[in-house]
Design brief:
This protein has 380 residues and is α+β, with helices and mostly antiparallel strands. Helix content is 55%, strand content 19%.
Length: 380
């Protein structure tokens, strides 16, 4: 109070009136300049071919606060007064703090403008990227305000090094306490940045498979073929081996056909070319690899065909394989080629209850004569 009284008595009424007018004039001038600049930049930003700089400056002006302009006007008004050193120092500190806070608001506006534009471009097409960008926006704002707070405290004379050390120790303790949550958060960022899969991809993880529906900060949700929702922890998901079928440029298909031993040799020689033509009938949708007579088995002669479907979607390659199977049955029927498969026939056979021992032993517990027993014969 004594310092304020000294400042009051050291200046006359004219000086105080001049200081008041100067303060109000500077404040009104700054407000008027901000209003004019906002209107001009908004008009430029609304143009069809507006430069990105116009949008950036508009966002920065919208982040300019009136209560942060007042210390600047106060500094200008105090410059015409005779004030003690303590008041001069307090006003200088107030102006610096106001400028630092305003700089933090401008920097936060720049970060928000850039990330908001990136989020809008990906909204509706890449939900996982939107989630990651929103997380980055939050982290960036926290970092900006934390650094600005440290700078302000240092300017006010506090021992910032001790505070930073304390925050470091506390940060380690917090990180150890929430390491599982942080692991999932970093795993989410890794998924978004590295993109082992995105929303809409069909993946297989262990014995679970389905289409990715949501990639969150902690979990990833997959809709299984049966309709149930499978929820994976992001950290556990990245530790697993993931099969992404959506990223396949083409899908390999292989099938075998077994024909009867009684098939003539000339017809056996026709089968590989017949299989090749069945695949090539689907044109550019497939890429033929080979068709060969690969095995003389115990019960049949085996032919193998391999081809690639250029569109890896499951329904597409199943439709193509179904069409090939139907045509294969028709062609084989026309050529009289029989497809073989193993069967097992169970027959009745008359005999003793214990064939290995011959006739049943004579005892009071002997089976009645002519009792039937089961035997099985495997017939190809």
């Amino acid at each position: 109070m004594r310092t304020l009284w000294q400042a009051w008595t050291a200046n006359g009424a004219a000086e105080w009136a001049m200081a008041s007018l100067l303060t109000i004039g500077v404040l009104l001038g700054l407000l008027l300049a901000r209003m004019i600049a906002q209107r001009v930049l908004k008009a430029l930003a609304d143009q069809e071919r507006a430069a990105p700089l116009h949008h950036i400056l508009t966002a920065m002006l919208e982040a300019t606060r009136l209560w942060l302009l007042f210390p600047i006007a106060l500094f200008c008004g105090a410059s015409v007064l005779e004030t003690p050193a303590r008041i001069d120092g307090a006003i200088n500190k107030l102006v610096v703090i106001a400028l630092l806070l305003q700089a933090a608001l401008w920097l936060n506006a720049l970060i928000g403008f850039w990330l908001s534009g990136a989020i809008e471009k990906r909204r509706g097409t890449d939900a996982s990227a939107v989630t990651a960008l929103a997380l980055m926006h939050f982290v960036a704002r926290v970092v900006v305000w934390a650094m600005m707070l440290l700078v302000i405290l240092n300017h006010m004379g506090f021992n910032v090094s001790a505070l930073v050390t304390g925050l470091g120790v506390g940060g380690v303790a917090v990180a150890l306490a929430v390491q599982n949550i942080l692991g999932d958060l970093f795993a989410s960022l890794s998924i978004v940045l590295d993109k082992p899969f995105v929303i809409g991809d069909f993946i297989v993880v262990g014995d679970a498979m389905g289409r990715v529906e949501h990639i969150g900060l902690k979990t990833t949700r997959v809709r299984a073929l049966g309709g149930e929702l499978i929820v994976f922890s992001n950290a556990d998901l990245l530790k697993s081996r993931i099969h992404n079928f959506k990223l396949m440029p083409e899908r390999r298909m292989a099938f075998k056909v077994m024909v009867d031993y009684a098939t003539p040799t000339d017809k056996l020689a026709m089968i590989p070319e017949m299989l090749r033509q069945l695949v090539l009938e689907h044109g550019e949708a497939v890429r033929f690899d080979h068709a060969h007579f690969i095995e003389i088995g115990e019960a049949a002669l085996t032919f193998e065909t391999v081809y690639f479907v250029r569109d890896p979607e499951k329904n597409n390659h199943m439709d193509i394989q179904q069409a090939i199977n139907l045509q294969l049955l028709r062609r084989f029927a026309q050529q009289g080629i029989e497809i073989v498969h193993s069967t097992r026939i169970v027959q009745w056979r008359e005999g003793p209850a214990n064939p290995a021992a011959g006739a049943p032993e004579k005892s009071s517990k002997a089976r009645p004569k002519g009792e039937k027993s089961w035997t099985e014969d495997a017939i190809a």
